[in-house]
Design a protein that fits this description.
The complex is a heterodimer of chains A (about 260) and B (about 280).
Chain A: E1 3-16, E2 23-36, E3 40-44, H1 51-58, E4 66-71, E5 74-75, H2 81-87, E6 91-94, H3 108-119, H4 124-137, H5 154-166, E7 172-176, H6 184-201, E8 204-209, H7 212-218, E9 221-226, E10 229-235, H8 236-241, H9 246-254
Parallel strand pairs in A: 3-8, 3-9, 6-7, 7-8
Antiparallel strand pairs in A: 1-2, 1-4, 4-5, 9-10
Helix pairs in contact in A: 3-4, 3-5, 5-6
Chain B: E1 9-18, E2 21-31, E3 36-40, H1 47-55, E4 63-70, E5 73-74, H2 80-86, E6 91-94, H3 98-101, H4 108-120, H5 124-137, H6 144-148, H7 156-168, E7 174-178, H8 186-203, E8 206-211, H9 214-218, E9 223-228, E10 231-237, H10 238-243, H11 248-256, H12 272-281
The chains are: A alpha/beta (about 260), B alpha/beta (about 280).
């Protein structure tokens, strides 16, 4: 399988504390992780573990202070601003609260056409056809194409975000807590959607979540993160059936279950 | 459930309306001392409005009807002033978001002391000592540090512990916790739920846990009330509801949640037909 995302000793520091006694704290100390095409790696950890910071570095939204991020063989740090722009279509991100990332004045069709326009792809009518096909793919009715974001439910808005992320056919998708704000019944639909689309398209996915049961459902491989470092990495079955680290066991014990 | 004593809280035929729109329809339940009732439902199910009606903190445009009996008194008939006096003292309330429930500029100690002086008539020094005791009771140590801290200096788990300390500070007999752990990490969630369970034992409280997560509250409740679209779908002992739910909606809600150890390819989603049938038949309406 092809390596799509290669994180090599990646780290990020943030400044903290009062102005005159500013300290640098590592949000991510040094992480190495690979995600292959057609594979989902679940990145699990608690708040403050650095999992979201790592996700942002993986798609080039945040430059690392150490190490190297390589996507499809291309080290991101070597890309100039000009060359980064077309490259961005290959790596996309879906966030937890999609309501904040959708322009409230744009209709569903505008929102789905926008990624093509930003990249200057396709003709006008072609873009609209593609927008309609995207709506179909993520299970949004075409009758809603002229509606505004606030007319959709939380689950539907998350579908819009997923459709926008998929529009440019990325090789890598980073999803940061994409179902945490959703009701259980909607969460089930969106998780199924992630699985279906990934199987159909075969992109590499880094799925960031604090929820062990969700990670177990979506992941092929699992990476457990704590205090800026990976404490355990393995296949889903290895990590969930035979966790080696006491911390992984703590997370498993704390997960709500019926 | 099998106790002969009067329940601490008895809600019967509770409805909440805004104009012609019914938000909650005909909800009935009881909670006894030392017992926990979990009220479970997705957004829009009416679980939080039910709790707000019990607390008497509904927005003025929402009208509550029916009966809410607390310790022998009919709350819905009481004047607003009397109800406010009960709220916080006799009935404790824990919100989902302690960050917005706690004052950002006042020290924790100052906020804890006010209700103690107001409801219990303690002196400043007595109230301060009592506040320190309460913090110890919720696992924040007998330190003045938390008393002198501001909300933003505390972690999410510590904030929720402070909220719980304040909720139990005036000796309530009933504690309502509305999504008390939703914003917290799983390990912290577990700690907070264990704390609530322990306090329920120690203080012989009747506890109502309101949550969207059946899996989370199941371990900590004696009885479950499942709501959908403002109505009660099903209620009964927790073990029975989980093992043999009578209603297809309850079954579907249980199955839709990813569960550790259950490696399925797809999650069962809730059928539209089940939702329609539930809407048509739930609550006997």
């Amino acid at each position: 399988m092809d390596v799509v995302l290669d994180l090599d000793g990646v780290g990020k520091d943030f400044a903290s504390g009062p102005f005159f006694a500013r300290r640098r704290t590592a949000a991510v100390t040094e992480v190495s992780l690979r995600v292959h095409a057609g594979e989902t790696v679940g990145l699990v950890g608690e708040s403050g573990s650095g999992k979201s910071t790592l996700g942002r570095m993986a798609v080039g939204l945040l430059p690392p202070d150490r190490g190297r991020v390589t996507v499809q063989g291309q080290p991101l740090s070597s890309l100039t601003r000009k060359r980064m722009r077309p490259f961005r279509r290959r790596m996309q991100m879906v966030f937890q609260d999609s309501s904040n990332s959708l322009n409230p004045r744009m209709t569903l069709e505008d929102l789905l056409v926008e990624p093509f326009r930003a990249q200057g792809l396709h003709t006008r009518s072609d873009r609209r056809a593609r927008a309609a096909a995207l709506a179909d793919e993520v299970g949004l009715a075409r009758t809603g194409l002229s509606r505004l974001p606030h007319e959709f439910s939380g689950g539907q808005r998350q579908r819009i975000s997923i459709a926008r992320a998929l529009a440019l056919e990325p090789d890598l998708l980073v999803a940061d807590e994409p179902v945490s704000a959703l009701d259980v019944s909607v969460q089930a639909q969106i998780l199924n959607l992630f699985k279906d689309i990934q199987q159909a398209r075969g992109f590499a996915m880094l799925f960031v979540s604090h929820d062990m049961a969700v990670v177990e459902f979506v992941s092929d491989h699992v990476a457990v993160m704590r205090a800026g470092a990976l404490v355990e990495v393995g296949t889903r079955d290895e990590v969930f059936d035979h966790p080696r680290e006491p911390y992984t066991r703590t997370l498993l014990d704390a997960a709500p279950s019926l | 459930m099998h106790t002969t004593q009067e329940p601490v809280l008895r809600v019967s035929g509770l409805s909440a309306r805004i104009g012609d729109l019914t938000l909650v329809r005909d909800v009935s339940f009881e909670v006894h001392r030392g017992r926990t009732l979990a009220v479970v439902g997705e957004s829009g199910s009416g679980k939080s409005i039910t709790a707000a009606a019990v607390m008497g903190i509904l927005p003025p445009q929402i009208r509550a009807e029916g009966a809410v009996r607390f310790d022998g008194a009919e709350l819905l008939a009481e004047p607003a002033k009397r109800r406010r006096a009960r709220g916080g003292a006799e009935i404790g309330y824990v919100f989902q978001e302690p960050m917005s429930a706690l004052h950002p500029l006042l020290r924790i100690g100052t906020q804890m002391i006010r209700p103690l002086r107001h409801h219990l008539g303690l002196s400043r020094a007595q109230a301060r000592d009592r506040a320190a005791e309460l913090l110890e009771q919720v696992g924040l140590g007998r330190e003045r540090k938390v008393l002198d801290a501001h909300v933003h200096e505390l972690s999410g788990g510590m904030r929720q512990r402070v909220m719980i300390a304040m909720a139990i500070s005036c000796g309530p007999r009933l504690l309502l916790a509305d999504e008390p752990t939703t914003a917290l990490d799983p390990t912290v969630q577990q700690q907070i739920l264990r704390l609530l369970a322990r306090l329920r034992e120690e203080l012989d409280l009747a506890l109502v846990l309101i949550s969207h997560d059946l899996g989370l509250v199941a371990r900590y409740s004696d009885e479950v009330l499942v709501m959908y679209d403002g109505r009660v779908v099903e209620q009964g002992p927790t073990a029975r509801i989980l093992e043999q739910p009578e209603q297809p909606y309850t079954r579907a809600l249980i199955d839709a949640a990813p569960r550790l150890g259950r490696r399925v390819d797809r999650l069962p989603t809730i059928d539209r037909a089940v939702l329609e049938q539930t809407r048509a038949t739930a609550g006997g309406a």
